[in-house]
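Can anyone check this?
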Amino acid sequence: MNKTDPSNVITITYPAGENEDIDIKERDAYLENFIGAVVHRITQLIDKNIEQYKSFADISRDHFDCKEAVRHLQHCQTLFKASSGVVYDQYISKVQGHLITGSRSEHQLCIIKGPEGCGKSSIMAKACFRARELFGKDAIIVPVFIGLTERSLLAEDVFRTINWQIEYLFKQEINIATMTLKKLCNYFRELTNKVSKSPRHLLIFIDGIEKMQLYHNPEDQNFDAVDWLAMKFPAKFHVIVTCSSTDTSAILNRLESKLLQQDACFEVTTMSDEDQLTILNQMLLQGRRKLTDQQQKAVLSSFATEGNPQVIMYNSNKSCQWHSTLDPDSLHDLLPTTLDALIDDILTKLETAVGKTISKHVCIYLALARYGLTEVEICDTLSSNDDVLLEAHLDTKPDVFRFPCIKWCQLMEILSKYSMSNLIEM
């Protein structure tokens, strides 16, 4: 209590002792006063903080929204938690080595590339947390997931948003909204030098640069908005990007051609047999399950086709639900071996639970929404579809035709592992 701000201490007299009877009306009045006092104080603290940061809101509120940064940070944390059982130590060590070098001298960006679904995003999320361990809790982490939000798709928007975030850290009040790209690049160099002279490290992680659009016209091959990535950064300023090697990327080719350090670019390959077995054993240990020799052999053989981390995690989790009496001959049919087969397996499970029509339209609406829907929005949308309602109420005739809550719970039970919660503006 001695260290508590006196203004945050609320004293309310209780109307009776612990062992004495108390009138219901007096108790209700006490509770009402207690709740009212706490809510009033919380409201005061919120208003005080809003006023404190009002100056920043007035500078560039039309161009930069703090919630944009929070959404990317939230997604980074979600990926980190989801990949807790996956082993990426060899790649994290390479990133760490690059960061240590970049903490002492000039350097260029680090590029992590690999086929789709190999775990690049998870590696990046883990690298963010490793950077905190390496440079301390005051290290500034700026994760950017290309395509996660509307403002994280166009290359110039991404670059300007990064500049605004760094500018905010140094309490700069320069309006960069109207700057040309050339002036913005020069200003960015000034900001990197400020970071280098400050006691804190700043790390920018960009995931999926192959999805970045150079201009509104995808065929435009002007690289002015991404050339800043290829510059030499001063000590304490770090940039790590990931890129898919499945398809040819003009941006990746551009950056690789400007790299002076070849070891600053490395490719994520399939997991070793030892790492695959480690993941399986971890999942079984968490589920308190044990497989027969034939079951374990079937699971491990399903990893061999692609060695995809998503397939490995999915099949390991699925095997935790098997009984020891399961027919050994049916095991191979139960396990997907590729990412496409995994998606088919999830959709089949969805169709079995709620029906083909409902499954189809849920997937269509989520895909069309792109940046997500609230539960109320998607249930309202499903309720406006006659085909969905007919399938949802095959055996019932309710007074009000709406998409039933029980069906939504069944959907979420399956989709929650493969969907992401997001922030919304109220």
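Reply from J.R.: I decoded it. The two ends are 36 Å apart (CA to CA).
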